[in-house]
Amino acid sequence: MLVDSHCHLDRIDLTPYNGDLEQAIMAAKQCGVERLLCIGTDLSNAQQVKEIAETFNNVYASVGVHPLDVTNNNVSVEQLVELASHSKVVGIGETGLDYYYSPESKDQQRSSFHLHLEAAKLTRKPVIIHTRDAKEDTISIIREHSCDSLKGVFHCFTEDLPMAEQALELGFVISFSGIVTFKNADAIRQVAKQIPLDKMLVETDSPYLAPVPFRGKKNEPKYVREVAEYLADLRGVGYEVLAKQTSENFDRLFFSK
Ligand SMILES: [Zn+2]
Ligand SMILES: [Zn+2]
């Protein structure tokens, strides 16, 4: 039992599966990955991720505009709420701030992030946050919107322990990708060791960031198994314990009312 809490099924390389997404999902299942959350990144793929979620009963979707796509996607709160009104759309995002790759669009990223947080509160669906090199702004914008109905996940976490602690304080959970297996990821490993197990999710972010020993290759959902095994080792718990706990965490975040 394992959940890939963040993947881009509309972008993964299906060459090994003769172009058949179902086979990629089956391959993941054979590695114990029973459910997947397919993430929306802009207005143009919202329909596609919904269709994927409609096609496969173990796939869910989210809708939102990625911080690196804000310049081409003018979205409103109403639009997000409308896009999210679908039984298999369980989250809003990915949204957030990425000052590393796109410092020039900071203002647009911030206003888009505000809109997504509003939509998350209105729909009572968790928000999926992408943040890089934007610690202070990310935390302070979430804090502005903080309320009982706002919850979510910091996906593909690459920041330090103080930032993780602030995220937890705000009621968010933290998701680790294959980056935690990389040689130079000591700071992330510290976070992964120290946060409570019941605040942790696992993901591939496929097709990006394949974990060791597949680093540099195209990533796919079945490799979330490597991330989970690595984290179990790091925490000194059995793989089954970590798989079960992260799956329960996923359910609590996305399916509890
Ligand atoms: Zn991301
Ligand atoms: Zn992503």
Name the descriptors.
alpha/beta; 257 residues; single chain; 9 helices; 8 strands; TIM Barrel; 8-stranded parallel beta sheet
Characterize this entry briefly.
The chain has helices at residues 21-30, 46-55, 77-84, 106-123, 135-145, 161-169, 186-194, 224-235, 239-255; strands at 2-7, 33-38, 59-63, 89-98, 127-132, 152-154, 172-176, 200-202. By secondary structure, the chain is α/β, with parallel strands linked by helices.
Structure write-up:
The protein has helices spanning 21-30, 46-55, 77-84, 106-123, 135-145, 161-169, 186-194, 224-235, 239-255; strands at residues 2-7, 33-38, 59-63, 89-98, 127-132, 152-154, 172-176, 200-202. It has a domain at 1-39 and 176-257: Metal-dependent hydrolases (TIM Barrel). Helix 1 links the parallel strand 1 (2-7) and strand 2. It contains nine helices and eight strands. The two termini are 22 Å apart. The radius of gyration is 17 Å and the shape is globular. The chain has an eight-stranded parallel beta sheet, with helices on both faces. The chain has 257 residues and is α/β, with parallel strands linked by helices. Residues 6, 8, 39, 94, 205 line the site of one zinc ion.
